[in-house]
Amino acid sequence: MTADRRSRRPGPSVRVKVTETNERGERRREDRVATEEPLEIRLAWPGADARRVWVTMRTPGHDFELATGYLRHEQVLAPGDLQRVAYCTDVDLSPEEEFNVVTVTLAAPPRRDPGHRHGGSSSGSSACGVCGKDSVGEVLAAASGRPWDGPVPTPAVVRGLPDVLREHQPVFSRTGGVHAAGLFTVDGDLLVAREDVGRHNAVDKVTGARVLAGEDGTGACLVVSGRAGFELVQKAVAAGIGSLVSVGAPTSLSVRLATESGLVLYGFTSPRRVVRYA
After folding, report:
1. CA atoms of 228 and 197, how far apart (whole Å)
2. Given CA atoms 18, 21, 22, 25 in this order, what sign does their dihedral have?
3. Phi, psi of 190, deg, nearest 5
4. Which domain holds residue 244?
5. Does residue 122 lie in a domain region?
6. What is the spatial distance between Cα 129 and Cα 228, in angstroms, rounded to a whole number?
7. Which of 7, 70, 231, 242 fits 152 for a cystine, CB–CB 3.0-4.6 Å?
8. What is the mean pLDDT of residues 85-92?
9. How many CB atoms lie within 10 A of CB 121?
10. Pairing mode, if any, of strands 48-58 and 82-87?
11. In this structure, is residue 21 part of a structural domain?
12. Which position among 88, 128, 131, 221 bears the catalytic label?
């Protein structure tokens, strides 16, 4: 990769000029904000040209993991189906698009129609992960990952997990503008942690990291830095996670989906307390 190509590759944060006002007056200074740029995910397989399946706003970094995890959560691929993940090299891409288009190539046709939820050409914000489902039953039918059949962390272990995750959030420390997700063992050992401006993107990156490492993406406990929204529960169920731990509140649909799928769901997690919802 040449120096010119590297210089165009977006990082997780950018410097901006700001004006800070407080009780002592006003001053100009430099600050860092989390980068938010679009990522287009394309899918290809033998006999089929690459096609766009999703566009999401994300924090650049671990893009191959994000694309792989997204397709795993959508039940489009199983770990053994993956042949190649690469940035798109189409000659008609602009310099700004060069590192914002990822193509995932499968060794065989996808397990599910890649347009089964989003029409094959949809886009999403950094705050939205589930836009096309009409019912919990439909999500449960799609979330057919291998169920977790092992133990899950005890409440005593769970209470300490957000603090462990917080120690692995360097972009948040610099910007205060990203979410985080982490996969933990039953004993509370961190396996992988990822950050992103989108809650669902951070979870996609975690699962994608495991799949690209040759694992199936399942695990005892997924910890997220925000609320336990419906889309995060759906992804946890699809990946075969045993328990989901959030520092914020769940929603009615997330509780229902967790209950019906057998996912252990915790909210309002802190060193002093944790609330189990399912």
Report:
1. 16
2. positive
3. -75, 130
4. 155-276
5. no
6. 12
7. 242
8. 80
9. 12
10. unpaired
11. no
12. 128
Catalytic residue status for 131:
no
145: nearest Cα among 200, 190, 79: 79
Who contacts 273 (Cβ-Cβ below 8 Å, separation ≥6)?
159
- Which of 210, 48, 37, 205 lies closest to 125, judged by CA? 37
pLDDT digits (tens, 9 = 90+) for 123-177: 555 554 444 444 556 555 655 556 789 999 999 999 999 999 999 999 999 999 9
User: Structurally, how many domains does the chain consist of?
Assistant: 1
Nearest Cα to 192, choosing from 65, 84, 86? 65
Please report whether residue 64 resides in a domain: no
Q: The domain that contains 250 carries what CATH number?
A: 3.40.140.10
The CA R_g of the chain, rounded to the nearest whole Å, is 19
CA gap 226, 235 in Å, rounded? 15
Name the residue among 56, 69, 95, 15 with its Cα closest to residue 181. 69
Closest CA to 54 of 73, 71, 37, 72: 71
- Confirm whether 267 is domain-assigned: yes
Q: What is the pTM of this model?
A: 0.89
Cβ-based neighbours of 270, under 8 Å, separated by 6 or more: 159, 162, 247
Mode of pairing for the β-strands spanning 82-87 and 221-224: unpaired
Distance, CA of 152 to CA of 132 (rounded, Å) = 31
Strand partners of residue 276:
266
pLDDT of 64 strictly over 90: yes
Q: Region of 37 please: left (phi>0), alpha (psi -120 to 50) or beta.
A: beta
Residue 73, H or E segment: helix 63-73
Rounded CA-CA distance 143/147 in Å is 10
